[in-house]
Amino acid sequence: MDYTTAADVFEYGEVEVPTANQTAVMNKIVTAVSRRIDKICKMNFSRNTYTNQIVPVRVNVDGLLALYINSPTISSVTSASIRAGNFPTLLPLQMSSAVIEPNYYGSKIMFYGLDYYGIRELTTLRAYASYTGGWQNANEIPYDFWLASTQLAWFVFKQRAAPMNSTAVPEFGIITLPASIQPDILDVFKRYTWWYA
Prior knowledge:
This protein is an alpha+beta fold. Helices cover 28% and strands 24% of the residues. Strand 6 (98-101) and strand 7 form a beta hairpin. The two termini are 22 Å apart.
């Protein structure tokens, strides 16, 4: 899924009637920018199904086990298991005790009802989860995230023709664009960066 559209980017840039070539280029830029945002935030924002995905796991001092998922939402969890220490077999986790906690910086699957404190200090603790997570459509994308995605796509589009590191001379139409992503755009994505990473 792309996090903005070519039409939204052109509207942001006040391009009323883009050419067919500009639209074709912008469509590619929008998709490339969306995948770049996934890497910046270390998150899987688009709805997808994952099977036996290795996920970080922690057991707190109360013996509560939590799996950390790099997705802002989880619509369903079909299975989860854990390998503790050097045991060769996987211990299936009871899905009936699972509670999903979605969040814009990554979701958690919490397992209540059992005490996992005994495996807390083991040096090797690995968890596997099968789940469906991510935003299903553009309506679920938060406004600030959409705007930052739109701004980044416009920046990349304009960067193609702009002189780099030039002195700004507005009367002659010379503009300066930095070679890297603007800090205000990155600040928005910091909020959506997987905190566990």
